[in-house]
Write a structure and sequence with these properties.
- With 309 residues, this protein is α+β, with helices and mostly antiparallel strands.
- It has one domain.
- It contains ten helices and 13 strands.
- The strands form four sheets. A five-stranded mixed β-sheet has the order 2-1-11-5-6. A four-stranded antiparallel β-sheet has the order 3-4-7-10.
- The two termini are 36 Å apart.
- Bound molecules: heme C.
Length: 309
């Protein structure tokens, strides 16, 4: 069974638990071996295929021990760890690939633009190895009923920020806060990866919607089984746009999920900065991606020079 399938069935299970979330599913084995691979395009395989797949035993790699600031905990802690930069260097991703998708057991995917030196210096991402206490999050006085469980490793970053998230949103959304244990690192071409979600470039509302999804939702949600699978897939089995029938219905869910937070275990943060207009754009994209085919994963031969991010 692939990791992706495992992850998806685990999160469905967690959803099925609903209000009795206290007994949230725990990863049943220690993830000290992670998969590392590069995605390459292939005709007949619109999402590409895995290339250079390696199973990396974290315990076999040279490690360091030090006190680090952990943006998930909001404080310093002593860790034994492997810097993610070392793993990347060992895999030697091709020049075309400039984005590392960090896959987590709970289905989250946090992209890391690893060729951006400023980002790497800011975040100093490492994989800490060992046993970690389940993490309870305090949400404005309500204690999370569905704590995060770790299984043998956890990613530690030095800042509660992410390069895809603008400052106004970062107040409410720190994706590192929601991740559990790392299960894989996938190297992709940034432009080609995101281009898959640009279902209709002529539809300006949908394009604006995806730009917002990239900032606020991509870490937890995917579409048509591509991208993260922590929250619901935006298309399968029920297209989110038909479930949240209008932008305003979607707005209530995005902006005020803490109203149902204790029942669902605060898995989705309340994104207060999303406006009614934003929610409308997101809804147009949700509709477009449910009704139009996603472009294939098709990197250009050489990456375009990047000016920002
Ligand atoms: C940190 C992870 C996370 C982020 C970020 C996130 N979600 Fe969610 N979302 C979830 C999870 C987990 C669920 C399922 C359980 C729940 O409702 O808490 C969910 C459920 C949903 C649902 C289906 C449930 C319903 O009642 O409609 C929709 C639609 C949705 N999210 C839209 C969004 C949109 C749009 C964004 C970005 C603006 C977003 N989410 C950002 C984690 C996230």
């Amino acid at each position: 069974m692939s990791k992706r399938v495992q992850v998806a069935s685990l999160s469905l299970f967690a959803l099925a638990l609903g209000a009795q979330a206290q007994a949230a599913a725990e990863p049943e084995k220690e993830v000290v071996e992670i998969s590392v691979w590069s995605r390459v395009p292939k005709s007949g395989q619109p999402r590409g295929v895995r290339d250079k797949l390696q199973q990396v035993d974290l315990k076999s790699l040279p490690n360091e021990t030090a006190e680090l600031f952990d943006a998930q905990l909001g404080r310093k802690a002593k860790y034994t760890f492997v810097p993610i930069a070392n793993l990347i260097e060992a895999h030697a991703p091709t020049a075309t690939n400039d984005l590392a998708l960090l896959h987590f057991y709970n289905g989250m995917i946090v992209p890391l633009p690893f060729r951006n030196a400023a980002v790497m210096t800011d975040l100093k991402p490492v994989i800490a190895i060992g046993n970690f206490e389940p993490l309870r999050k305090d949400n404005e006085g309500h204690l999370d009923v569905r704590p995060i469980h770790f299984a043998g490793n956890k990613v530690v970053v030095a800042k509660p920020t992410h390069p895809a998230i603008p400052e106004a949103i970062a107040r409410d959304l720190n994706p590192w806060r929601h991740v559990d244990s790392l299960v894989g690192i996938e190297f992709v071409n940034d432009l080609a990866y995101y281009n898959q979600f640009q279902v209709n470039p002529g539809n300006q509302s949908a394009a604006a919607g995806f730009a917002l999804v990239k900032q606020s939702c991509q870490f937890c949600h995917g579409a048509r089984k591509e991208g993260a699978q922590f929250g619901w897939d935006f298309v399968e089995p029920i297209p989110a746009y038909s479930w949240r029938r209008k932008g305003t219905h979607l707005l209530y869910h995005i902006k005020y999920p803490r109203l149902e937070g204790e029942a669902t275990g605060f898995m989705m943060p309340a994104l207060r900065s999303i406006s009614a207009v934003d929610a409308e754009y997101i809804w147009y994209w949700l509709k477009a991606v449910a009704n139009e085919p996603m472009p294939p994963y098709a990197p250009k031969a050489a990456p375009r020079p990047k000016t920002k991010r």
